[in-house]
Amino acid sequence: MKNIAILCSGGDVSGMNPALKHFVEYSLHKGLCPYFIYDGLEGLIDNKIYKASHKHVTGIINRGGTTIGSTRSKRFMDKKFREVAKKNLDALNIDMLIVLGGDGSFRGMDVFYKEHSVKFCGIPSTIDNDINGTEYSLGVDTALNVIKGSIDNIRDTASSFSRAFVIETMGRECGYLALVSALTCGAELCLIPEVAYDLREYEKKFKKQVQSGRKYFIAVVSEGIKESSAEIASWFEEKVGVESRVTVLGHTQRGGNPTTYDRLMAYKFITYAIDGLLDDKNSSVICYTKRGFEYKSIDEVTGAKYQLDGELLKFLERF
Q1: DSSP β-ladder status, 32-37 and 49-51
Q2: Which among 12, 39, 110, 128 is annotated as catalytic?
Q3: How many structural domains does the chain have?
Q4: What pLDDT, on a 0 to 100 scale, did the predictor assign at position 55?
Q5: DSSP for 155-206?
Q6: Which terminus in the chain has less CB density within 10 A, N or C?
Q7: Domain range for 169
């Protein structure tokens, strides 16, 4: 029986637990012995590697986050700690890894593979959806639904008090969450790092709307824009003449009950990852594109910066 292990690296996302559940079930189905590596790459160095069975994944499919923990590891960047990690895997005869994480984790694993021939398959897992080569990362759908619920609730207060609400989403320098949320929640303003904007143009338009009877505004902004959310709120009050409030959604976007779609995608990602490793795809990332699932090299994934879909950017013109 061959041994295979899985770990989570970087930020947690809802969808990791469904992935862990299917990892155990599908590994056993394929005649593999599954192991969990707790606390990510740090756990790989500290030898927190334990055999997994059905009892470890019972009742976790509906839980956000990850039951095996996740970390960001600076030590793994040091060759001597990668050598420790390899010895830990060798002691358990593990030569196949699945990594739920982002492009930084994948780059580290690629170095590990080149040094020690430990086969791995990466599964894009970040709510920011900013990994080049894939149109979808695990956890994105749950995050979007959390944001949708928050905006829908805030709209009730915005309309009751005739206020502008500036709602800040996560995403670092990627505006995916903000743009999709603005489009699907009917926001009046959407500001993202990828597109230049001039608030003076919005000032004229919004003043006309207020004169025509508009009582409130919903503005969705990405955390990576040039102004702070507080500055956008001040602009609403000083230039548009509407009382304003700020809501920073923060880490609420990472948690929550995984949506049906994220659970399904977790199932598919894991299936393709295990099948790929058994088919000698030894250093790849399983990506979801318009053509379906594809195995891509680390260079393909990390060699260029993620770009927002052109069709989505066209929709931004309505703002």
Answers
A1: antiparallel
A2: 128
A3: 2
A4: 97
A5: HHHHHHHT-EEEEEE--TT--HHHHHHHHHHT-SEEE-TTS---HHHHHHHH
A6: N
A7: 141-254
pLDDT, block means (10 residues), the chain with 319 residues = 96 96 98 98 98 97 97 95 98 97 92 95 96 96 98 96 97 94 96 94 95 96 95 97 96 95 98 97 95 94 89 86
Regarding whether 185 and 229 lie in a shared domain, the answer is yes
Parallel, antiparallel or unpaired: strands 49-51 and 244-248 = unpaired
Instruction: Indicate if 124 and 211 belong to the same structural domain.
Output: no
Amino acid at 115: E
- Tokens for 140? 């994105």
Taking the CA of residue 137 as centre, how many other CA atoms within 13 Å lie in the half-sphere pointing to its CB? 28
One domain, residues 94 and 172: no
Q: Provide the Cα torsion 254, 53, 273, 110; round to 10°.
A: 80
At 318 the pLDDT is 77
Angle at alpha carbon of residue 111, lines to 105 and 116, rounded to 5° = 120
Whether residue 98 contacts residue 89, with contact meaning beta carbons closer than 8 Å, is answered with no
Residue 280 appears among annotated catalytic residues: no
Q: Is the pTM of this model over 0.85?
A: yes
Burial of 126: CB neighbours in 10 Å, binned 0-12, 13-18, 19+? buried
